[in-house]
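Progress report, Aim 2. The chain analyzed during this reporting quarter is listed below.
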Amino acid sequence: MKKARILKWGNSLALRIPKPFAEEMGWAENAPVTLLLDERGLVVRTDRERSWDLATLLAGVNAENIHPSEDGAAFEEDEEKGE
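Predicted structure tokens for the chain:
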């Protein structure tokens, strides 16, 4: 357990998360989280539905799911271009 203080941040309040806690949770700046209140207090959880990884998203792009460019050109696989 670690004690902390609630601080003012603009018109809101803020709570600093100690680095060891953030590291254990896998959180970095702008990590998506959900907040909820239960009978014991505030609960902060990783928002798994919004935890996107760019490399994983790009790996899922293929000729069947990509949108055409504004000029109407279709996506071409590297093999089709001869690269």
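The chain has a mean pLDDT of 83. Helices lie at 19-25, 54-59, 78-81. These observations will guide the mutagenesis work planned for the next reporting period.
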